Amino acid sequence: MESKNSSQSSKSTESVMEVIDFRITKRDSKGNLQEQIFGINVYKVKEVIFKPTDIYKIPTNIPYLEGMVNLRGKVIPIINLEKKLGYNTDDVEADYLIVTEFNEISCGFIVNQIRKIRRFSWENVITPPDNIRSEYGDLITAMTLLKNGDIMLLLDFEKIVSDMNTNYPDVSLDLDKVEELDINKCNTVLCIDDSNVARSMAKTALETAGYTVLEAINGLDALNVLKDLLVKSQDNHASISSQLHSIVCDIEMPLMDGFTFTKKIKDSSDYSSIPVILHSSLSRNVIASKGEDIGAFDFITKFNANSLIEAVQRIK
Question: pLDDT tens for residues 164-182?
């Protein structure tokens, strides 16, 4: 089963996403087996294959790291999602491997079943309720209801990789390369990301470089922030640039994704002058063409603090 990583139609609208529906078997409170439905954005998937039989075991204290495997000359780590999620179903066969590439890192994720590619609007992707968050913590970024009423959970794959690798991501900032800010200009940046971890890392890098940071958790939340800034600028008989230098925006967010948000503000006479940097775990090749079409200033891959600050400082 091939992903649409390289063949996604340019006709897709900004508010529509496509995910691979995969299943992981777990036990309910009575010990009965049941399938939990998960989804992953097709743009993060290189391919789906049968689980290799030649996974090389390595000494590790990470219980969900199954080992390493050589796929077409590239050695990648293999992560057992059932173990990471604490499902305790080692006796149930998991036959498939989802091979991913995001944040310039390749990994393989073992799952029980692969079903289909599903397509739905970001407007139908919502923040998980407290009961799901209490079960999964910050491993779930969002959820959506399928047509039959079943719940699909969207895993935070970046968080899973980060938990495994203490050197990922690179949050260090080379201060020698940071330009001195013009104190006579507004140096406030709006950072939009539904991931608390990702938003915190971006905020830390920006503040270290001298910027003031406002935060929003999705596109809808960010529009409300912009409305407040617009009122302040109008009260001072000034442009919106007197209140905001730029926007750093994630793409995959519930309720309103980054593409839709960017297009909305670029179509608005009130906000169109604000530069938007798309900041995503998706590869640059995936986001560049669509970002150009909707007027984004730049597009960078998460997460490298130096790349983020360099992009923001290119805005004059």
Answer: 875 555 667 888 888 999 8
CA distance 44 to 40: 7
For 4, 42, 203, the CA distances from 186, given in Å and listed in that order, are 41, 38, 17
Would you list the domain boundaries of the chain? 16-164, 175-313
**295 SS3 class:** coil
What is the predicted pLDDT for the residue at 197? 79
* Fold exhibited by the domain 16-164: OB fold (Dihydrolipoamide Acetyltransferase, E2P) (2.40.50)
Q: Per-residue pLDDT tens for 88-125?
A: 777 788 899 999 988 778 999 999 999 999 998 888 99
State the CB neighbour count (10 A cutoff) for residue 275.
20
Ramachandran assignment for 94, one of left (phi > 0), alpha (psi -120 to 50 degrees), beta (any other): beta
Contact between residue 277 and residue 299 where contact means Cβ atoms under 8 Å apart: yes
Q: Does domain 175-313 have CATH number 3.40.50.2300?
A: yes
Q: Is the model more confident about 247 or about 174?
A: 247
The verdict on whether omega for the bond into residue 275 sits within 30 degrees of 0, i.e. cis, is no
Using an 8 Å Cβ cutoff, are 216 and 225 in contact?
A: yes
203/124 Cα distance (integer angstroms): 28
